[in-house]
Design brief:
Elements (H helix, E strand, L loop, with lengths): L1 H26 L7 H80 L3 E9 L8 E4 L12 E3 L4 E8 L4 E5 L9 E5 L13 E9 L4 E7 L10 E4 L11 E10 L6 E7 L8 E6 L3 H4 L8
Length: 298
Amino acid sequence: MNFFKKKRMFLFLIAIIILVGLIGFSTRDRSSQTLPEQIISDTVGFVQNIFSKPAQFTSTVVTNIKDLKNTYEENQVLKSKVDDYKGLMSRNQELEHQYHELQQTIDKFNQFTSMDYNPIPADVIVRSPEGWFDQLTIDKGSDDGIDTNMAVMTASGLVGKVEDVSRSTASVQLLSGFNETNRISAKIDGGENEDGDEQAPIFGLIEGYDEKDGMLLFTGVKPDLEIKKGSLVTSSGLGGVFPEGLSIGEVDSVELDEYGLSQTVHVKPTADLYDIDKVLVIDAASEDASSSNGDEGL
């Protein structure tokens, strides 16, 4: 029994000595590892590499997915801001257009007021697709002083005349709907000749509209009269319905009729007949302009 105890004590001491020796051996400065250490290191490195590659790949994929999601969310926010910006830009342009149009209308209102006319401002409320080129409806009527055959203008120029009137609204016939039975007495500015002298105006009638070219037709001009492109065309006031001096358009081109007996002048309207929002109805309050309520061929 004592023998076995002594043997175990002896083995224990040997194991301690070997352990201390190994510890001392492993902690000393060495330039290279032993073969067992190399095998163990290589094995551990190989195992670590096997597990670390998929872990790194998974981590990279997860990171990329998160970055992609964040990029998508940021892109959606930016798109929303861009859409809002575009909406604001469009609204701003619309407001600028309305302001410019309103300012021009006010200037024209003051101009007609100084000419002893009574301009009545109105807004367009109806323009049906069927009669887009012929008629529109305004929000002023007989209660506001509107009467038939009154001239209707925008800030740019003449657009038509009042055709029918109710108490609160009025129907306006546009220049693009005029024909031989609806005419305007007009004149073309003669301008200056080569000597600088003022030439007499050329009188005629606006009695048609060329839808293809978007031009008013000024007729009744003698073939020997010279008409310059760009000359101003205004109402003459001779018919007693429209006041004198209302801007109608400018000369675009001139052509002889098939018999060479008269000229037809193509007049580009100064007013945009397609885009009309605000108008002025001209009540010729001056004695000269309102002395006659006769027919101007209208």
